[in-house]
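Figure 2 data, in text form.
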Amino acid sequence: MTEPKHQTEFSERLYVPWWGWPLPLVAAVLLAAEVHMGYPGVRAWLPYLITVPLVVAALLWLGRSTVRVRGGELWVGDAHVPLEFVEQVEVVSAKDKRRAMGPDLDPTAFVVHRAWVGPMVRIYLNDPADPTPYWLFSVRSGERLAALLRH
């Protein structure tokens, strides 16, 4: 028997944007070129075959996290919380992110931070069985998610 399909109300992938790709790829090519200079011949192409796909895989891996609201639950990566335990929702702007991630951060909070995503959302929880006071996570459409969570 299969589970009933729930409609996804919000979904966003925290992928690495286009401007985050050139520098790591150039670094991979330069590293491969350094190794290439020491090994002429057939082995010269091998560093390119290894470093460039490794960097591409790393960038794809960094962008694998998703934020979604589905079936009455908020999912951030693999973690999820029922919406009934969401007490308060706050959007942290890109300019206020440093303070939220620094001196104002509770060490017991659940945090998913992606530096290339500007805004963050902080949700305070009211689950007495959960020692986590709040979740703080990156999301590009923070205002839209906050409006959805407030209803």
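Caption note: The mean pLDDT is 89.
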